[in-house]
């Protein structure tokens, strides 16, 4: 295999590029995007991605409903989002063009597969005429029409594939062209083709030919006078890899398993966008990971509790609708006081909602979606790479406090990716787990005796002398026997609440990006971190006294939250829901928070946050802390 | 290995007061379980009882073993997670007709078809006891209950037919009042490798008293119950009547009228469940109802063995998991 070619045309250096690849859901756009991401990461850029695809596996071809997109920003500086506006848009058909064009900046590059623009496709996309022919298009964007289908067929003709197979190679042609345009090396993708299609040499050779043809097209056509170069970003020194959120959660779990010396049982039921955690974990059987694809969500979590009772760390994951089904068993896990992790990869709701689109509207479900008084710790990762750390942290809390811990991820970070600095094993926290030793049984075992964390012991079946029974009926303090005593129920309810509340003492205080007091505090959680951080950074640079607190611990919250909220004139909570964190902050701290709320199945753009937060900052500027609508601290 | 202490039935009793209604059939099942367990030679700490919700499901509290009283209908799922990770434990699932067949129907089926090595005791009293007297999935059509004042219009479900349809490897039935038979059946279930299901006809003397009197009472039992024994013909009514297979159905014959060779010989080991299914469909009053082991197919791989075998195989082929190697898998690059 020969190495990647180099261009003879002019190269313009830019600090970052945002590109979106859009086509029919069968066109291989996700593959193209993933390859471009990996290649850019390997070139040392910081990258952030946003895959956006239909819920249907193959929505009707050529229709707007069937458009699958993949957006990636790669940059020579640290970035936190996949970008708002596109510098380049690649479209394979009219439906992809009309549904994505509004995000392309003026003067941006529009590359269109000309062969995908014909009468039949116009009809499918419900457009009257060829959208490429509109004069406004040529005036607004740099349009490059490429006969990708024909060029791909020509490039692969020598390999004797049928038309259908030959046409499948056109995403590699598009990839080659994009690689040329942004100065990307072909090598990683050549290696990928070899690994993926090595057993089908004709398909592999055709894909290679298509990729090279796409590159050569960019180099030779007069449509492009120059290509672009994004230099390596100055990231913290270390060895990096590209990582997706679900992948990072799976790796964090297996790392925690090693760190704690506990094997892991993963009981789950397939659901978008959580299923990839299962797919990843099935690869880790040699780490002692047992994965169980249960018959339903309820069985999934119940099997997890069964494993936890046996002394194995139990983990289950789902998305909102599945978590709803797990509610009763989560309550049981809570009263049994067994360690386990429950991961909710949130998606648009309610009910089946928007399976492939992101939202963060399960916070209330995580906090309160169980009968009775049953508080559970809730953590939320802020980025794909942070999923790794959150998984380890959840494991630590679950085992130290003997309780189920909820992780609130979301579709945006689950499927998004970023460079991840590979940690040295010595950097990872140790997790100490112990089980009580056996006894001669002369004294009755006390399964609900507690330690300084209010955690009860984790006695494993099979240990002599520790025989005990647990269950969903209220426990008598210390003995764990069934008890209907009113005072005991009060005591046990209070104790379980206190056990979760005291976790606040053993998590880091809330950190702030910016000053610890000022005009506006932006409070966010979960996957909106990147947009909020970038927005606040810009607003600060514009001279406003705006700070940002991003919560990774939602229950309990860090102990300094109340004080922090009271130190700003206004508190703004951007969320991809109707104001769930805002409701919690208002209820707990009597702070009149303002919300920026969006439920469109899409992440925040930095621009929309900058506009709205700046407006609030302007109005707060002349306000004194004692004026109306001022934040008050409950503490 | 040190010698095991000799345990008695009383050693398996927990310190909790048993709180079933006086006269409940559950007492008999509890007594037989405590009698059978010491004979198995399994230490108490290696035994776990898992139950769902219902009168029967209070059972684990009364056993001095490990135990979990879980949520309604889901005991099979808890048992699956436990047994998959702790194949060294002997796991019993205690359930009732409402628990196993109504709210837990799904889990019941999947536990059986996976053949997880657990022992299931299904207390069938054909009524909801703990929720006070509503009809259950095994209640007879037309039954008057609190929720069916004009008679139940649901067709009843046969737990054994359902189990056989799921290709369960061990299927048996016994009766609370038939203590010797019950003890023997529990012992056989315990010895089976794979999911063993024992349906126990159990009288609810408060809400459905006498529903199974035809099978429980000594006076009627001989005429209405046929005891299955492997390799032996189906004979009942003190030897006067037998069961014969004619075409594709079973019929009652007088043993005096037909040659002994014509009677159906019970084959619990047949991998083909068709005849077992015909036996499971025998229903009073048209037919005597079989008790004993309907089916006991050995050497079918269990789920727990296989899930652990895959872990062992992965370790032997890929080596023990190495975090550093895992983190660095795929394309990496270094920033100086």
From TrEMBL, chain A:
Superkingdom of the source? Answer: Bacteria
Q: Report a single Gene Ontology molecular function.
A: oxidoreductase activity, acting on the aldehyde or oxo group of donors
Segments forming domain Pyruvate flavodoxin/ferredoxin oxidoreductase pyrimidine binding: 264-477
| CDD domains named in the record | TPP_PYR_PFOR_IOR-alpha_like (cd07034)
Q: Which GO terms describe its biological process?
A: response to oxidative stress
- What is this organism's lineage? Bacteria, Pseudomonadati, Planctomycetota, Planctomycetia, Pirellulales
What is the protein name given in its UniProt record?
A: 2-oxoglutarate oxidoreductase subunit KorA
- Pfam families in the record, alphabetically? PFOR_II, POR, POR_N
Q: Which residues form the Pyruvate:ferredoxin oxidoreductase core domain?
A: 519-583
Which InterPro entries does the protein's record reference?
2-oxoacid/accept_OxRdtase_asu, PFOR_II, Pyruvate:ferred/Flavod_OxRd, Pyrv/ketoisovalerate_OxRed_cat, Pyrv_Fd/Flavodoxin_OxRdtase_N, Pyrv_flavodox_OxRed_cen, THDP-binding, Transketo_C/PFOR_II
Enzyme Commission number(s) of this protein? 1.2.-.-
Which ranges carry the Pyruvate/ketoisovalerate oxidoreductase catalytic domain? 26-214
Q: Name the top EC class.
A: oxidoreductase
Protein keywords: Oxidoreductase
Automatic annotation (TrEMBL), chain B:
Q: What is the lineage of its organism?
A: Bacteria, Pseudomonadati, Planctomycetota, Planctomycetia, Pirellulales
Determine if Oxidoreductase is one of this entry's keywords: yes
Can you supply a Gene Ontology BP term from the record? small molecule metabolic process
Q: Name one Pfam family in it.
A: TPP_enzyme_C
Its keywords, alphabetically, are: Oxidoreductase
List GO molecular-function terms, semicolon-separated: oxidoreductase activity, acting on the aldehyde or oxo group of donors, iron-sulfur protein as acceptor; thiamine pyrophosphate binding
Designated name of the protein? 2-oxoglutarate oxidoreductase subunit KorB
Enzyme Commission number, as recorded: 1.2.-.-
Q: Does the keyword Transferase apply?
A: no
Domain spans labelled Thiamine pyrophosphate enzyme TPP-binding: 53-200
Position of the signal peptide: none
Report the InterPro entries cross-referenced here: 2-oxoacid:Fd_oxidoreductase (IPR051457), THDP-binding (IPR029061), TPP_enzyme_TPP-bd (IPR011766)
UniProt superkingdom: Bacteria
